[in-house]
Amino acid sequence: MQKRIKLEIFGTVQGVGFRPFIFNLAKLLNLTGFIFNHSKGVTIEVQGTGETLDKFNKLIINKAPKAAVIEEVDSKQLKVNRKESNFLIKKSKSTKGSQSISSDLAICEDCKKELFDKNNRRFLHPFINCTNCGPRFTIIKNIPYDRKNTSMAEFKMCQKCKEEYDDPMDRRFYAQPISCPNCGPAVQGKTTNNKQQITNNKTFKGNDAIKEAANIIKKGGIVVIKGLGGFHLACDANSKKAVDKIRKKKNRPQKPFALMMDSISTIQKYCLVSKEEEKVLKSSKSPIVLLKAKKFNLLNDIAPGLNKLGVMLPYTPLHLLLFYYLKKSKPLIMTSGNVSGEPIITDNKEALEKLSGIADYFLLYNREILSGYDDSIVSLIGKRNDMQIIRSGRGVSPITLDLSVKPNRDLLAFGTDFKNTFCLLKDNKAIVSQYLGDLENLSNIKRFKKILDNYKKLFRVKPEILASDLHPCYFSTKLAEDLSKDPKSLFKIQHHHAHVASVYAENRLRGKVIGVAFDGTGLSDGEDNKIWGGEFFYGNPPNFKRIAHLEYIKLPGGDLAAKDPWRVAASMLKDIGRINELANVLPIDQKKLNIISMQLGANINSMESSSMGRLFDAVSSILNIAQENTYEGEAAMKLESIINKIERKYYKYSFRRGKHFIINWHPVIEQIIHDIKKGISKSVISAKFHHGTAKMILEVCRYLTKHYSAANSVCLSGGVFQNSYLLERTMIELEKAGFKIFINKKVPTNDSGVSLGQAIIAALRVK
């Protein structure tokens, strides 16, 4: 008996080959009907026997394209259409509402084969793609996702491409970025004279431009390469001369560089790679993955003082062709092509103007980037292989999450000034932007506004409720205040409440939890007007209550303490009466220590903080691992890198009860000084400090379960938990004791996840 059903499918179902998949599935099962895209998702009407329709529904869920994310399917029965004889893809419709949009997808295996097949008409074509791969979000102007709404609109398809595009049996059926050498974007190469201006006498076109880029790299030069979401600076990672040159020109003395390598086998020469890490490297996201490095000659030049490398595989045909012309399998430094402190560059002209003093050559193309993206960075945590997002960008963003709360009005959360993202709420969906950097200058703020306008247009969001950080001096807070038409519509959210709430939101938790928020800095909610960062909370997102925290430490010099770990070390040693011992083990001038000691004694420019991040800095300083943070987290990352993985002993914190449960770090510093005097190695001391901190978290959580309704769910968040060793040890300790552990997996645990937390708290307070 014939039946007809209507399916409304919501989620990431545009730009992922979903319509061709449904078309071919319907043909396979001899079903009739149609499918079309609209602004919320896709609509399908289909008819056939009841048994066949059941099979059709199951296959949609089980066999959908890999990049598709089906979040919801609404189904209803219709009258049978006796006149219908075919299944069609109908023209897209623009409707009210929004839907998830696919991130850019790394080149698929089928396209790789064709790229290097001499008999294929796309042999060595730098822009080969199909329904399973290629640019997506970076080329979208509007939805529905059709070619006319992308930056491919200006490239008219040739007859052969049009035939493939229209052929239901072809892999490029309805592939919006489809092109070939006759009708697609074009590559161009330009040389520079490295004196802040472009020479006009040397230009290269097509694959000759890629060959020249390879030649420049072989000679030790620096090449600017246009990627999917921005530009890279590339050079030979095995050339000390080239590495020194790019460090000097980028003014980047210590910060590690990301690497791109041509294959897993090449990566295995330099790094340890698990099967799970290999899967992530080869996935359609193709992020930078942090891998344990093997020792090699230039390791300390590429990642000074660290034991991990950030590595990715070539994710565009242009990258693959660069390695093809290099001929030898060698790692390339592939770092963001931007001026330090400024947003990523997306425009050819701007790249030529701003990067000519750094680069020897530019490898460009003429397809416009509409939304700029950094490469995503991820890490896999221990034996559990939980994927932790460090930076959300290409392949990951925009992040769309289903929430357990549905605000009655659209909402916008502005995030923080550091590692900024914003978050939009519409219905029960949260949409978190890509990493936008630090809002520290006008150009970054302009980019924030531009990307925000783009998201509001694409996702059909008109925010009426706003949320920001509580910090009154953040640019993000001031932006929220400026845009707020009614003070009652703006909710200012305490920073660490938002950290914990981000875990709560993405895991769709209910009820009360213990929240642990460890990071570097953050303003309090006015309870004591001090800087927080080592906090334990109890409750749920609208009403978290601070229960325990790290003992306060004075930060001499205020913000300077975040850049100079020795200042925090001096303060801690003064607290325990050992400041003069610092000069005996560290290359710190005694006059500086005397000034700091006087400053602390007189309480001049010495804010108090409970920051766990600053404690890590101080330990790194006392061990003389790092006395300066030339980039965020440097001292703590170097402390983690030297851990002795065999050591199992730990340092003990002490505790005292007062208004809050106070965690006293004094005994830990005393034990570290004792071990230094005994000649215990830095690697063992680092291990004992990390183990002790994990044990301390367990002890505080045990205390809280006894006093607060026996809560056994623990949310861990904040930048300190980017330390994969600490996170893994903490999870092991808590799970052994019977706690349920929740962490950030879909949004970063650092400040990039704060916007989601702000959004859920504001939504619940409104509700």
Architecture overview:
By secondary structure, the protein is α/β, with parallel strands linked by helices. Strand 21 (465-469), helix 13 (475-483) and strand 22 (490-493) form a beta-alpha-beta unit. Helix 14 (495-506) packs across helix 24 (754-766) and helix 16 crosses helix 19 (612-622). It is globular and about 90 Å long.
Quick overview of this protein structure:
The protein has 767 residues and is α/β, with parallel strands linked by helices.
Question: What is the secondary structure topology, with strand pairs?
Answer:
Layout: E1 2-12, H1 18-28, E2 32-37, E3 41-49, H2 50-63, E4 69-78, E5 87-89, H3 109-115, H4 159-166, E6 187-192, E7 198-205, H5 207-218, E8 223-226, E9 231-236, H6 240-250, E10 258-260, H7 264-270, H8 275-281, E11 288-292, H9 299-302, E12 308-312, H10 317-326, E13 332-336, H11 348-355, E14 361-365, E15 377-381, E16 386-391, E17 399-402, E18 411-413, E19 423-426, E20 429-432, H12 442-458, E21 465-469, H13 475-483, E22 490-493, H14 495-506, E23 513-518, E24 534-539, E25 545-550, E26 553-556, H15 560-563, H16 565-575, H17 579-585, H18 590-602, E27 606-609, H19 612-622, H20 634-641, E28 654-657, E29 661-664, H21 666-678, H22 682-707, E30 713-717, H23 724-736, E31 740-743, H24 754-766
Parallel strand pairs: 2-5, 8-14, 10-12, 11-15, 18-21, 21-22, 23-30, 25-29, 30-31
Antiparallel strand pairs: 1-3, 1-4, 2-3, 6-7, 6-14, 8-9, 9-13, 10-13, 11-12, 15-16, 17-20, 18-19, 19-20, 23-24, 24-25, 26-27, 28-29
